[in-house]
UniProtKB/TrEMBL annotation:
Family that this chain belongs to: Belongs to the AHA1 family.
Protein's name in the database: SRPBCC family protein
Annotated Gene3D superfamilies: 3.30.530.20
Short name of one Pfam family: AHSA1
Domain of life according to the entry: Bacteria
SUPFAM superfamilies: Bet v1-like (SSF55961)
InterPro entries: ASHA1/2-like_C, START-like_dom_sf
Activator of Hsp90 ATPase homologue 1/2-like C-terminal domain segment(s): 25-153
Length: 160
């Protein structure tokens, strides 16, 4: 890691593994669909539309709202529908972050008694990607997860 990256984000090591959890009143399949289908991601993932079959070894892409620009273009590493999905992550929407090594996002969906699920999003492999770690930390992923929850529970995202 360059000294420049460390001087920009001195807390990068602390942010190398980020874990976010949220309870959602939805089935595992509904949550899986919200993660892997464009009609859902467009409502909560900053307007981006996911393109994937969610099969191991296939692409996992996010297209910007313009439909052309790629915000993410990675690969599915693990897939166990509708329980677990592991994909690569590079923030192509930011030139500096795009130059960093890819990190990884793991989605885990655990059914709970009472008709809801615990969704855990773990963003890791960020040790060599301090700009990405800083950009997605805290409010970044929480906005996505809160929006996903809102879409599934109310039918609309957080943004009007």
């Amino acid at each position: 890691m360059s000294n420049d990256a460390m001087s920009i984000h001195p807390d990068a090591a602390r942010e190398a593994v980020q874990v976010y959890q949220i309870f959602i009143k939805a089935t595992p399949q509904a949550i899986w669909d919200a993660i892997t289908r464009p009609e859902f991601t467009a409502q909560y993932f900053y307007g981006s539309r996911v393109e994937t079959t969610a099969e191991v070894g296939t692409p996992f892409r996010y297209r910007a709202p313009d439909g052309e620009t790629l915000w993410g273009d990675e690969t599915v590493f693990e897939s166990d529908p509708p329980r677990r999905l592991v994909v690569g992550w590079r923030s192509l929407y930011d030139e500096q972050a795009a130059a960093e090594p890819a990190s990884r996002i793991t989605w885990e969906i655990e059914p709970q008694d009472g008709g809801f699920c615990l969704l855990t999003a773990t963003h890791d492999h960020l040790e060599q990607s301090p700009i990405t770690a800083h950009n997605v930390a805290g409010a970044g992923w929480m906005m996505v997860l809160s929006g996903l929850k809102s879409v599934l529970e109310t039918g609309s995202g957080l943004a009007a």
